[in-house]
Amino acid sequence: MTDSNSAQAAGSAPVLEVKDLVVTFGAGSSAVTVLKGVNASISRGQTLGIVGESGSGKSTLAKAIVGLVHASSGSILVDGIDVGRMTGPQRRDMRRKVQMIPQDPYSSLNPRRTIGQTLAEAIDPVRSSPMLHREKIEYWLSTIRLDADVASRYPHEFSGGQRQRIAVARALAVEPRLIIADEITSALDLSVQAELLNLVGRLRRELDLTMAFISHDLDVVHHVSDSIMVLYNGDVVEAGSVDAVYQNPQDPYTRKLIDSVPGGPGFDIG
Ligand SMILES: Nc1ncnc2c1ncn2[C@@H]1O[C@H](COP(=O)(O)OP(=O)(O)OP(=O)(O)O)[C@@H](O)[C@H]1O
Ligand SMILES: [Mg+2]
Prior knowledge:
This protein has helices at residues 4-9, 58-65, 88-97, 115-123, 134-143, 160-173, 190-206, 218-222, 242-247, 252-260, and strands at residues 16-25, 32-42, 47-51, 73-78, 81-82, 98-101, 178-182, 211-215, 227-232, 235-241. By secondary structure, it is α/β, with parallel strands linked by helices. It has a domain at 4-103 and 177-259: 3-Layer(aba) Sandwich (Rossmann fold). The strands form 2 sheets. The chain has a 6-stranded mixed beta sheet with strand order 6-7-8-3-9-10, with helices on both faces. It has a 4-stranded antiparallel beta sheet with strand order 2-1-4-5, with helices on one face. Bound molecules: adenosine-5'-triphosphate and magnesium ion. Adenosine-5'-triphosphate is lined by residues 25, 32, 34, 52, 54-60, 216.
């Protein structure tokens, strides 16, 4: 974890800082505290892998970062701006700065828009004509290894894996400061998962992406992350570089996750 004060002193404040974040749903006797004082930080060009079993609070953390869930206490800073205290213009700006790639490749793209229209809107929501942005659209399609002519097609004409790649391109086309990928491989077959992970692994190096990559599967996360945070029942039980977490896990739950990673070929990420 980056010490935010020393990072700021060095002139490289983290893109994301989560400080003592508590999220409680409901009130009174039905109140449930889902995040119990989470701290996290992501520096520019870095990917933080967030792992934890179902119900541990991963998506709640993702939603809090994009402002869909309110912090009960603590704070979330994106580029130093507290997402809980933004002005109207800051909020509009933030909707582009932080891009979430959701899990479901079938609901994440508008079925009535061509791929070109979807990408044009990501590139420029005001002047969102595919003709105006043809070159950029071709560029983003090439980054996900799709031909330029797919721009005129609709989401239903693509496989789940292709749609998820298009969802990645849509998020990238906004040129966000921070990308949040929440279980983006879990709806896909294993071989397609590996393809998507390879793509994300390549893009994060080529484009120097800053990302939070969420999965319940440590094997998936560790291939694309610089550091890893393990959530267990709303608490951070482990945080550190990928190597440190793998070689010297501090928490028995992390050890269990590492041991449960099956042997064999795994994902072949270059
Ligand atoms: N709006 C809400 N109101 C009440 N409880 C909620 C709400 N959203 C989430 N929860 C609860 O918070 C806990 C954490 O949910 P969350 O979706 O963050 O887990 P997750 O780690 O993303 O799980 P999964 O791997 O299944 O996606 C769960 O027990 C869930 O039922
Ligand atoms: Mg989730």
